[in-house]
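Risk register update: the risk of archive-format incompatibility is retired. Evidence:
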Amino acid sequence: MRIIIIGSKGFIGNHASHYFSGLGHSVWGADVMVDYEAENYLLIDAVNADFNVLFEQQPFDLCVNCSGAASVPDSIENPARDYHLNTSNVFKILDAVRKQAPHCKVINLSSAAVYGNPNRLPIKETDASRPMSPYGFHKLASEQICEEFHRFFGLKVASLRIFSAYGEGLKKQLFWDLHKKALITNRIDLFGCGKESRDFIYIEDLVRLIEIVAEKSDFKADIINAANGAEITIQEAASEFLKYWKPEAKINFTGKERKGDPSRWVADISKVKAMGYEPKFTLKDGLKKYYQWLRKEIEK
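Archived output:
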């Protein structure tokens, strides 16, 4: 396949590019960062992107949109920026596909943030969406834009609601925060009470899930949970990570809630499992690889 990864310099986009290239596909990257050495790379204007030029280059079979912002706190501080990156640009990408490559399949990376605090667990794709942040609202709007372009223009689109992805290269969120704090203290303060839960998915599982969706989805504005289907508390996850990183460190949960953070999450992944997906990495497995990467980063 000819594949274009928009947002190829980001955490998921970079892994997806290497993964699909490793399978023998012809992969092009596109992002806002200048790179004079990368082959098959297209530069996007960060302020006023014209995505038409991407699809004029090659007759792509698949577009994976990994671009956008991915920070709940930043979406609260800068909602206009978040809307531009997570919603407006999705419209521009799909409009470019409509004009230049109407037969190209599009996978849009959405987020579990669209669910907010669910009424029940595990969360099904058909459950109500009640976002708790501008980020969640904007990701939900991007899904609705995907449905619009499928319904009115026949585009082949699917949206993945990604839960808590982690792995090598991720320099934010829980495990990165733990490692940074543990470098300077043995007493680590975290938001919440520790009983909050997430559904963690290791990056190698996630890119394989994307591949399965690319092969098996109907692309009729499908909504698909991207997770491992295992509920793990923040206390359990943090303790597991510190076993590798700094066993003597102690975690103190402040009890303070952070705006936009849900209490409990675990996904119903029966939809993607029916396509053939099975998680290969437990949290312990994935954190060991993340720890090994962190050690190499420090030694550089």
